[in-house]
Every structure is written in C-alpha cells, then in structure tokens.
Amino acid sequence: MADRLSALDCAFLQIENETQQMHVGWLMAFDGPAPDYGEFSAHIESRLDSLPRYRQRIQPMPLGVARPLWVDDPHFSLTHHLRHSAIPRPGGEAQLRTLCGRVMGQRLDRDRPLWEMWLIEGLPRRRWAVLSKVHHAMIDGVSGNDVLQLMLDADPEAPPSPASAWRPTPPPSRRALVGSSAAWTARIPVEIGRALVGGVRSPITSTRTAAARAYGVGQIGRAATHPTSVLNGPLCPHRRWAWARGDLAEVKAAKNATGSTVNDVVLAAITGAFRRYLAGRGETVEDDLLRTLVPVSLRLPHEHGQLGNRVTGVLAELPIGLADPLERLAAVSGQLDHLKRSGAAAGIDAVFSAADFLPVGVMVVGGRVVARTGQRLVNTVTTNIPGPQQPLYLLGRRMREVFPYVPIAEGVRISIGIATYNGQVAFGVTGDYDAVPDLDMLSVAIEESLGELVAAAAG
Questions:
Q1: Do residues 237 and 413 touch, judged by C-beta distance below 8 A?
Q2: pLDDT per residue over 198-224, tens digit each?
Q3: Which of 234-267 are b and which e, b meaning 16 or more Cβ less than 10 Å from the residue's Cβ?
C-alpha cells in the first residue's frame, strides 16, 4: 500500500481554506539567457524520478476514518504544473513581486499533485527566474531545500539527466482502501500499548520526556503578548510578498563577536525591523514583546531527501521594546538557548504525535480549532532554512539568489522566511494584501536593522 500522510501533513491540508493557502515555495533568480519552455520542461521531467511525490496525488480513505494516502496520479501531465510567464516593462523587482504575490495567493488543485513551477522571463540584465510553490503537506523547510538541490546541479557542465521512463502504479481498489483503513484503525490500540510499555521499561527517560513535553504544551497554552492591530486579525484571500538581503559573512562576524548563533543574529535583526516598522505605523513598541513561532527541524541525517514534514517548533518572544541592537541580540540569544535546553520544542511535537492515534474526523475538528486560536497564540512566524554554500546551476545557468516563501496563518498577517545560499542571507516576507499594504517597508526595515546590528557588533 502507498505511503500514508502523517498527522502533521494532514493538519496542513485541513487548515487550508478560502483565505489561508498552505503552500510554501521559493523564488530562484538566474543569470540569462532563459531556456525555452521545452528545454526547461524536459529538464524538470528528467529529475522527477528522484521526487516520486511530485507525481502523486492525495487519495482520501473511505468514510474518512484513516489518514489519506499518496498514490500515483494516473493522469499526470507536466503541462498542468509548469507555467510560463513574463513580467511587464520595466521588468523590475516591483513587477516581479506583484506577479509572485498573485501566484502565491491561489490555492493548489487537490485533484492533482500539489505543486506548480513558473518560468518567468523579463527581468533586467537578461536574468530570469523560477517560482516554485509546493503544498506544506508535501514538504517542510529542510526537505524543500533537498528538493531544490535535486532540481539543480553543482557543476555548470553537468550532463543532461536521462529521459524518464516513469509509468504510474495503478491506484488501489476500493476494497484495498477499505482493508487498509481497517488495518490502520486496528493498530491504534497496539501503538498506544507499545508507547505505554516503553514508558514502563524506561521510567526515568519517560519522566524526563514527559516533563519536557509538559513544559512545551504549557508554552503553547499561553496567550500571545501584546498582539498588535496590524499583525493579528482576519485575512483576505490575496497576498503580498517582499524580500530583503544580507551578507552571510557579516552575520557570522556578528555571531562570533557576540558569542551567539546565526539564527540568533537574524532573529534579532527581525526584532529590530518589527520595532522600526510598527513605530513607523504609530504603534506602541516600548516595553513590548512580539511572540513568534520558530519551526525546529526533527529531521535526522539519514532522513534528508525524504519528503513530508519532520518539524516541530518553539514559541519565542521578540523584545521589540529594547532600543539597543546588542541588548536585543543578547535577549534573543538567551531566550532561544533556554528554549533549546528546556525541551520546549517537544510540546508541539507531542500534540501531533498524539494526533497520530486520532481518527481523521477528530483531527479535522482539532485542526480548525487550533487554526482559529492562532491569533491568540502568536503574532508572527519566522523560520530559518540553511542552504548550500556553493553556486548551483540550472541548465548551466547560475542561480544568483533564492528567496523563501512561508504562508501566513489564520489571524497571523505576516510571516518571514530566512534562507542562506552561497554567502547570502535572504528574507522572504509574506503579508496579507489588504491589511499590510506597506509590506515593502518591513523588508527595508530588515536590511536597516541587520546593518545596525552588524555595525554594533563590530564596534
């Protein structure tokens, strides 16, 4: 039988609605000239044998008792997933951001494999871009980075991949689906018993794990601190997307000078950016905090290259009330270090681990409840995805930049993705179209805040 979606994979499907699209993505900018559509299509198709999920669709189970399966799409056609577009003159970043925001504001078709890729021409200096969107049910940040490296090459002279000879596996019959549902349901008591036996055999380890998870669950239950008018509220169906840039060598220099981490530095820069942005809108920032969800990968080294979600998270408070950039960095660094040592990430992981034992109907209700309470839990989402530190190529064209796209969630109007690539730090800033018309001001504030922090650390 085909692979079954995890509880977390299902959650990303269930919380999607008319105003909340749950796909992730990235924009890759390349040196020109752009390949033609046929050449680009043949290249992508030749890489799909390494990404079987890209040819699979979701198969619901009878009566919705068990979690859905991934099955081969018998009518898979690459033309449904590869699109070709160009930005209008003058072909600058403003036009590119408008196109990307429009594309990212549209939901993926659930009757097909859950991804699209856009070949975009018309950028200045003969450059071109690829915009990729993939449903969060398929990938998390780390597996998305693995996908990126499978699509690209480290050698500009890499020979073409052989043409694919893929043939879809016939879909399971209804009888097989009913049998699989029954077998999955029957295993629930067995898995619960196995977990209980493990606790009896290792009581000290289990007690420590339970304590860590209890701390994390308690953290989830606390309300967000000082939610602000622009960051929290209802969403519209449309999206804005902006980006900012930084130098990874400068970030590492600030990290070394302050005894912190790269993640600490970029989060402190984002903290300073929110301070600037909110103050510029006339909102109170003094003595204030913003609460952010920071995803944490649980993926083990041998799990790289596997799709699906292996991620949990911690809830951190960004000290936007602190005016001094080094004080903000010290506060962020100390808090994240405490969260790592406390086992706070186990809290969210515990919720979804427990959901593995629940019928899908119960999970649907629970997922919607969690989505509706998002505004009370967090003010924003910030996720950091380490990327390759050597140039990558597509059809011999060098990738100059890559910007991550992170969706916004019910009640949370701004999210920020951070990615590193070949000595660069890139910030992708997603915002609600109606509520955040000045999203570009936040991306400018990120660059200014990062520069201020790097200069302070150097001094």
A1: no
A2: 545 555 444 444 444 444 444 444 545
A3: ebeeebbbbbbebebebbbebbeebebbbbbbbb
| Residue at 397 is within a domain | no
Q: What stretches of 47-199 adopt beta strand conformation (E)?
A: 56-59, 69-72, 82-86, 115-121, 128-135
Do both 215 and 337 map to the same domain? yes
Calpha distance 152→147 (Å, rounded)? 9
**In 3-state terms, what secondary structure has residue 124?**
helix
pLDDT in tens, 367-404: 454 445 455 678 999 998 888 899 999 999 999 999 99
Single out the catalytic residue among 23, 81, 135, 136.
136
- Can you read off the two tokens belonging to residue 294? 């920071």
Beta bridge partners of 315: 293
The reply to whether 17 and 130 lie within a common domain is yes
| Contact between 392 and 130 (Cβ < 8 Å) | no
Of 285, 350, 370, 348, the closest CA to residue 322 belongs to 285
**What pLDDT score was predicted for residue 452?**
97
Res. 149: pLDDT tops 60: yes
**What gap in Å lies between CA 356 and CA 358, rounded to an integer?**
6
CB 406 within 8 A of CB 313: no
Residue 186 counted as domain residue = no
Structural domain containing residue 247: 203-388+403-458
Spell out the residues 6+ positions from residue 145 whose beta carbon is closer than 8 angstroms to its own: 385, 386, 387, 388, 419
CATH code of 124's domain? 3.30.559.10
Closest CA to 144 of 349, 18, 295: 295
Provide DSSP, 330-350. Answer: HHHHHHHHHHHHHTTHHHHHH
Report the C-alpha gap between 419 and 404 in whole angstroms: 6
Q: Which residue has the tokens 């198709």?
A: 45
3-state secondary structure 174-210: HHHHHHHHHHHHHHHHHHHHHHHHHHHHCHHHHHHHH
Residue 136 known to be catalytic:
yes
